[in-house]
Amino acid sequence: MADGHAVGERAKFREMLEGTKEDWEIIAEHSRIFNKGLAKRVLDHLRLLDGDFGGFPIDRLEHSLQTATRAHRDGRDEEYVVCALLHDIGDTLGSMNHPDVAAAILKPFVSEENLWMVANHGAFQGYYFFEYLGLDKNMREQFKDSPHYQRCAEFCHKYDQAAFDPDYESEPLEFFEPMVERVFSKPKNSMYLKAMKSAE
Ligand SMILES: [Fe+2]
Ligand SMILES: [Fe+2]
């Protein structure tokens, strides 16, 4: 390994109170390698949506691909397209708050406006169906003073609510993989950022 530690070497502490600089150099080196696989792990998790219809006309992976494809074909930049691709990745683990899961995964890598859009798309998407479930379709109005309101409303209108067409030909997941790799290779916000930079 780069700093002289053998592959498989482990820290020696039994509780962190005993930790040494060497222990943490070993752990930091492992996490540097582990972090490089993040995009792949995220994509693997997204694949769990394959075949998950939930009563919708198309499954959740196809919906994700269609949302991202529509955004891409409309000229959106790479970061936006990756947000579109991953906006519903939380459906498996966050069935009561799925936008929070996607936002947590994307938070270190995207702009504040894109993060806000992903984090709040649930309330904005509700404009198109909440009335049928006894909910307030105007729930999004609680955000009317946000500078990101229009961005989120546009995302849902143009791409998310529009992405349930079984006849639409989306790009395959492989098409988006290099984009996900690039976006996840450049963290912008993380409390670990300084340590990550010095380990490069
Ligand atoms: Fe969603
Ligand atoms: Fe969606």
Automatic annotation (TrEMBL):
Gene3D superfamilies membership: Hypothetical protein af1432 (1.10.3210.10)
Pfam families in alphabetical order: HD
Domain HD: 60-121
SUPFAM superfamilies noted in UniProt: HD-domain/PDEase-like
InterPro entries cross-referenced by the UniProt entry: HD_domain, OP_Dioxygenase
Protein name per its UniProtKB record: HD domain-containing protein
Organism of this sequence: Hyphomonas jannaschiana VP2
Species lineage: Bacteria, Pseudomonadati, Pseudomonadota, Alphaproteobacteria, Hyphomonadales
